[in-house]
Amino acid sequence: MSTPAPTDPPATDIRTRIETSHARAEGFVWGVLHIQYPSTPEAATARAFASAYAERVTESLTSEGVLVPGLAEAWVAWRVAGDLTANLAPARVSVERVPRFEEYDAALGNRTAWWLCAEALGYVRGWCDAAGVGSGDAVDFAHAYAVLVAAGGSRPNIADAWTNWRSGRPLTAFGTAHLDQPIPEAHTPIQAPAERIPR
Question: Tell me: the pLDDT tens digits for 32-73?
């Protein structure tokens, strides 16, 4: 959620507010990355983010209508897209990408697919919370990932698969696939084993 530039501690001096925002942003990243020493590469990352955040605060204080995202939202957007205000909402999902009930129901009979479906769901909900975007795609993505796992073979990790999903690419895309590439055929349903994992 975007908010006006932070105003506490109260100060009318713009420079003080900018310096305070810079310090908050750098401190935030030190906490997130568990930084212990200022000479580490992570500390340089914290300084770079803090500078970008302070620049955004400066714009908000000197220009009308410029909003500053919250620190957590800005941090995720900056890490993912290099832009504090990037729209990280997933691409619109075509119906073909979402597995049918029969497909994901059969896939969830596979123990590994069941566990990774739950892990994918948690990962995406956490990612969306941190990014400040809705997590409406989380369940569809988790089901699609479960079908992929149950099918066997090579697959990307959850983070890479989620990046592909957000970009509108097939879950299994590697490298820089283009958005206009055709989406692969629907997954072949997997026969569920006799023992089902309780849901």
Answer: 788 888 888 888 888 999 899 989 888 888 888 888 888 888
Q: What is the pTM of this model?
A: 0.51
Q: What type of residue sits at position 180? A: D
What's the 3-state SS for the chain?
CEECCCCCCCCCCHHHHHHHHHHHHHHHHHHHCCCCCCCCHHHHHHHHHHHHHHHHHHHHHHCCCCCEECHHHHHHHHHHHCCCCCCCCCCCCCHHHCCCHHHHHHHCCCHHHHHHHHHHHHHHHHHHHHHCCCCCCHHHHHHHHHHHHHHCCCCCCHHHHHHHHHHCCCCCCCCCCCCCCCCCCCCCCCCCCCCCCCC
3-20 per-position pLDDT tens digit:
555 555 554 688 888 888
Using the structure block, give the residue that is written with the tokens 């300084």. Answer: 47
